[in-house]
C-alpha cells in the first residue's frame, strides 16, 4: 500500500470521507485528516456542522457512504462486523448522552472496561475509587446514574472512557454539563492522558477551553473539514503529573 511519510504513523486516517443519512444530502463531504499517536485536537464548528457524525465514524458506530477510514493501520470500512470489537476496545468514547448503565453503580460503570479486560478485583477496587475521587465523585461511588446530576453522570462517563488508557479517546461535548472549574480540570485529565500517548479528539462548543489550551482544531463548517492551528499560544498551567490518579499514571494504565 502506498503511504506518504506524514500518514505512515497515523493511528487514524480519513481520506475523502463522505456521509449521508439514508437518501439525504451528504452531512460530511470530502473529509480528510490523520491523527498521529499522541496528537490532541479540538473538534469545533457550529451546531449541525457534523461533529457528532464525524465522531460516530471514528468510534465505528457508522460506516461512511464513501471514502476510506483506517484505524491502527486497518481499513475499517471494509471490515466484517466481528472484526471490529478488538479495535473498539482500544478506543475510549465519551458520548454526548453518557450511555451509562442505570442499574450499575458509578463504580461498577467505570469498572466495566477493566472487568472486560480481565483486571483483578483488587486493582479495580484500588484504581476506580481513586479516579472517581479525582473527578470529584468520592461521595458517589455507589450511586446509580438515575440519582446523579447531568454533570456527575458526565464525569462517570469520562472516568469510564479513560480508565484503561485507550489508544484513542473521542469525547463529544465532555464538559457540556459542568462549570468552568471542573471543565478545566477535566481538560487537564485529557491532556495528561495525551501526554502518556493517547490520541485525543474533543468536540466542544466551549470557546474558553479552546482558547486556553494550545491544541490544533479540526473545524467543521457545513460538513467540510479544515485543520486549523491552535487558538491559544501556550498551554495553561495545570495540575502536575504527580497529582494525577495513579490509575492513569501507574505502570501504563489500570488495564495494562
Ligand atoms: N440520525 C440522523 N439521521 C438523519 N440526519 C441526521 C442524523 N444525525 C444527524 N443528522 C444530520 O446531520 C447533520 C450533522 O449533525 P451532527 O449531529 O453531526 O452535527 P453537530 O455538529 O454534532 O451538531 P451539535 O453541535 O448541535 O451537536 C445535521 O444536519 C443533522 O440534522
Automatic annotation (TrEMBL):
Organismal lineage: Bacteria, Pseudomonadati, Pseudomonadota, Alphaproteobacteria, Rhodospirillales
Organism: Caenispirillum bisanense
Complex and partners: Homodimer. Forms a membrane-associated complex with FtsX.
Keywords linked to the UniProt accession: ATP-binding, Cell cycle, Cell division, Cell membrane, Membrane, Nucleotide-binding, Transport
Gene that encodes it: ftsE
Cellular component, GO annotation: plasma membrane
Membrane topology, as annotated: Peripheral membrane protein
Coiled coil, from the record: none
Gene Ontology BP annotations: cell division
Molecular function, one GO term: ATP hydrolysis activity
Protein name, as recorded: Cell division ATP-binding protein FtsE
Predominant location: membrane
Biological role stated in the UniProt entry: Part of the ABC transporter FtsEX involved in cellular division. Important for assembly or stability of the septal ring.
Cellular localisation: Cell inner membrane; Cell membrane
Family the entry assigns: Belongs to the ABC transporter superfamily.
Residue ranges annotated for the ABC transporter domain, each copy included: 12-247
Gene3D superfamilies found in the cross-reference section: P-loop containing nucleotide triphosphate hydrolases
Family annotation (InterPro entries): AAA+_ATPase, ABC_transporter-like_ATP-bd, ABC_transporter-like_CS, ABC_transpr_LolD-like, Cell_div_FtsE, MacB-like_ATP-bd, P-loop_NTPase
Amino acid at each position: 500500500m502506498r503511504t506518504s511519510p506524514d500518514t505512515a504513523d497515523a493511528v487514524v486516517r480519513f481520506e475523502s470521507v463522505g456521509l449521508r443519512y439514508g437518501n439525504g444530502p451528504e452531512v460530511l463531504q470530502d473529509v480528510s485528516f490523520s491523527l498521529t499517536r499522541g496528537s490532541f485536537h479540538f473538534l469545533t464548528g457550529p451546531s449541525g456542522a457534523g461533529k457528532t457524525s464525524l465522531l460516530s465514524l471514528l468510534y465505528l458506530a457508522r460506516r461512511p457512504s464513501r471514502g476510506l477510514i483506517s484505524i491502527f493501520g486497518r481499513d475499517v470500512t471494509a471490515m466484517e462486523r466481528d472484526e471490529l470489537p478488538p479495535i473498539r476496545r482500544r478506543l475510549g468514547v465519551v458520548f454526548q448522552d453518557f450511555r451509562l448503565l442505570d442499574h450499575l453503580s458509578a463504580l461498577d460503570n467505570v469498572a466495566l472496561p477493566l472487568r472486560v479486560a480481565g483486571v483483578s478485583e483488587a486493582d479495580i477496587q484500588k484504581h476506580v475509587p481513586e479516579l472517581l475521587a479525582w473527578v470529584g465523585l468520592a461521595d458517589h461511588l455507589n450511586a446509580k446514574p438515575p440519582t446523579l446530576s447531568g454533570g456527575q453522570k458526565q464525569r462517570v462517563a469520562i472516568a469510564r472512557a479513560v480508565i484503561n488508557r485507550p489508544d484513542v479517546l473521542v469525547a463529544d461535548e465532555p464538559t457540556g454539563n459542568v462549570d468552568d472549574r471542573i471543565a478545566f480540570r477535566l481538560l487537564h485529565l485529557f491532556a495528561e492522558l495525551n501526554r502518556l500517548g493517547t490520541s485525543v479528539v474533543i468536540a466542544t462548543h466551549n470557546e474558553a477551553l479552546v482558547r486556553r489550551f494550545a491544541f490544533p482544531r479540526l473545524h467543521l463548517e457545513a460538513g467540510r473539514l479544515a485543520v486549523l492551528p491552535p487558538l491559544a499560544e501556550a498551554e495553561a498551567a495545570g495540575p502536575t503529573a504527580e497529582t494525577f490518579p495513579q490509575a492513569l499514571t501507574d505502570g501504563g494504565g489500570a488495564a495494562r
